[in-house]
Amino acid sequence: MTKTTPDRDIYTVSRLNQAVQGLLEGSFPLIWVEGELSGVARPASGHVYFTLKDPGAQVRCALFRNRAQLLRFRPADGMQVLVRARVGLYAPRGDYQLIVEHMEEAGDGALRRAFEELKQRLEKEGLFDPARKKPLPRFPRRLGVITSPTGAAIRDILSVLRRRFPGLPVLIYPVPVQGEAAAPAIAEALRTASSREDCDVLILARGGGSLEDLWAFNEEAVARALYECAIPVVSGVGHEVDVTISDLAADVRAATPSAAAELVSPLRDEWLEHVSRQSRLLAERMNRRLRDHLLRLDTLERRLRQQHPERRLRDQVQRIDELERRLLLAMDHGLRHRHARLARLTDRLGHRSPALALERLSARREQLTLRLRSAVRQRLDRLDSRLSAAARALNSVSPLATLGRGYSILTTAEGQVIRDASQVQVHDRVEARLGKGRLSCRVVQKEQDL
User: Fold this and answer.
1) What class of enzyme is it (predicted)?
2) In angstroms, rounded to a whole number, what is the distance separating the alpha carbons of residues 123 and 359?
């Protein structure tokens, strides 16, 4: 019999493991751990068990089914991953382990962490502040595009411009849009465009791709160049779901390069309307200035009369009359020219009116409708005649007529017509179809003709 000393606190193995488990789980918050997958196992329970290792150590991990169902990839041995996990202990075996809450592939996860860190830092500095963003010009005189000269983005932009406003000049700043040299080149192009001020608005564009492909547009140098650019910049990078640091730092973000081109280019009809309004405004100002000059001339004439410079006054009056006559002739000529042009345009518009075409098409539609109705009626008559003849022929050979004369058709329970007594056995059920109705019968005796 073992004697126990009263002042000793003796732990059982279970108690010790539970205490260690509490210390581990209480001492560590959720942590991020990066390593290589090894020994990945997927039992029928749906949980995933594996070892996470690096060149110097390894740790056992468990990813339970409810979390494993959220994975966007299938874990496999040799993959480099990043996990968010709780430190714990599997008490029955005393094994130290990680309880994984989230797992992602390491390369993409590192880029996303770098993206979020840079985004938060630049946002605190005010680089994304909406108050400092510059408005886009309504009618730009020249558009600058910073992109690859051979990529799909520039083709999409030029296609949109040809459709909306083909007269808008475009200046391309060629840069690489992927790789280590892309970010410095893009930042330098932004600074060059800002200092030269050759354009009223810029588009920074690239087609879609992975997070790594678009990383040049997540560099700090590009974000600061966008912030310092004196010209409004529209960022059209990737597809609609792609959001880069450049999108946040630019003055306007477009979902795609094509959408960016639509934002900066006016519609041709709007531009023509703008020119028309400016022309009317110019004519009004010219008329106002002419009236002001005539009033001034009248004032000078009154002053000359008050001073009685007879000869000089007559010369000036004659000169004024001549200028007035020439002015009126010029105005009259201009008005006649404009009236004639308006008449020509009105005549051309009348010849191109859709009303004439509509009348011709309406008459054509009525003729076709009448022809269609006649053809349909004739077709229906022919089909009706054919149907009547077929019905008469069918009735002449129909077995139903035979049934009407007292005969019947026997079929098995499966619906097979009985032509031979060998097809049925005694006590089998058969069905007899009569001229009117059906009879369900049972075979009580059969005889086979020899």
Assistant:
1) hydrolase
2) 64
